[in-house]
Amino acid sequence: MSENQQPLRRIRSFVLRTGRMTDGQKKAYARLWPQLGLELSPDLLDYQHVFGREAPRVFEIGFGMGDSLAAMAASEPDKDFIGVEVHSPGVGRLMSLAEDQGLTNLRVFCDDAVEVLEQRIPDASLSRVQVYFPDPWHKKRHHKRRLIQPAFIQLLRQKLLPGGIIHLATDWENYAEHMMAVMSDAEGFSNMQGPGHYAPRPDFRPMTKFEKRGERLGHGVWDLLFRKDP
Fold first, then answer.
1. What is the 3-state secondary structure (H, E, C) of the chain?
2. Residues annotated as part of the active site
3. Cross-strand partners of 61
4. What's the CA gap between 65 and 88, in Å, rounded?
5. Is residue 147 within 8 Å of 13, Cβ to Cβ?
6. Could you list the pLDDT tens digit for every one of the 230 residues in the chain?
7. Which of 75, 108, 151, 200 could form a disulfide with 7 if both were Cys (CB 3.0 to 4.6 A apart)?
8. What are phi and psi of 45, to 5 degrees?
9. CA distance 176 to 195
10. Strand 106-109 versus strand 80-84 pairing type
């Protein structure tokens, strides 16, 4: 294992949160997992087998309860979406949303994103990676636990197609500054808004209820869009 890979084994994408599933979430999980669920294995994903087609692929880390990811999959039917979340109630709810909306372009992992990326995602196969509102680990002594770190960004670079996009969003200004510093220093990426500039929320990222409430309270949200160099 190279020196650059070592931190990936210590930083998990999110703290494991099994939570309590509602009866509806449990039933959706059990019924829909064979159709929509993906699991860790030594074999790279065969996208043609998983989705039945070749299309641009979007990979989201930490989709929470799944509302925004389901909305994106519905609004961009020309793309295939893979979501990763360790919170099983959220996984169950997203699968239920996918069933209710008849979405065929969405699959989910209930695992750690680093392990999923390393084991299942082929190199140079993703068009976009999304990390929205990750745990900010706001106490300074916990900053080392933040997901957005140089080694992790280079893992994402490995999995993105040339010209592929990393889209980050946070409502913690300190984390936004950290993200900007990491991405600005990252080899092989260019800020789509120009050096040091945050991006307006792109149309493809739905505004969550949490975000709308924060906006009413005067809380900021920072989006970052970086493109992998050719």
1. CCHHHHHHHCCCCCCCCCCCCCHHHHHHHHHHHHHHEECCCCCCCCHHHHHCCCCCEEEEECCCCCHHHHHHHHHCCCCEEEEECCCHHHHHHHHHHHHHHCCCCEEEECCCHHHHHHHHCCCCCEEEEEEECCCCCCCHHHHHHCCCCHHHHHHHHHHEEEEEEEEEEECCHHHHHHHHHHHHHCCCEEECCCCCCCECCCCCCCCCHHHHHHHHCCCCCEEEEEEECC
2. 135
3. 84, 131
4. 9
5. yes
6. 333 333 444 444 444 444 577 787 788 889 999 999 999 999 999 999 999 999 999 999 999 999 999 999 999 999 999 999 999 999 999 999 999 999 999 999 999 999 999 999 999 999 999 999 998 756 677 577 799 999 999 999 999 999 999 999 999 999 999 999 999 999 999 999 999 999 999 999 998 777 777 777 777 999 999 999 99
7. 151
8. -65, 140
9. 14
10. parallel
Which amino acid type is present at position 127? S
Residue with tokens 């979430």: 25
Q: Residue 103 has which token pair?
A: 């979405």
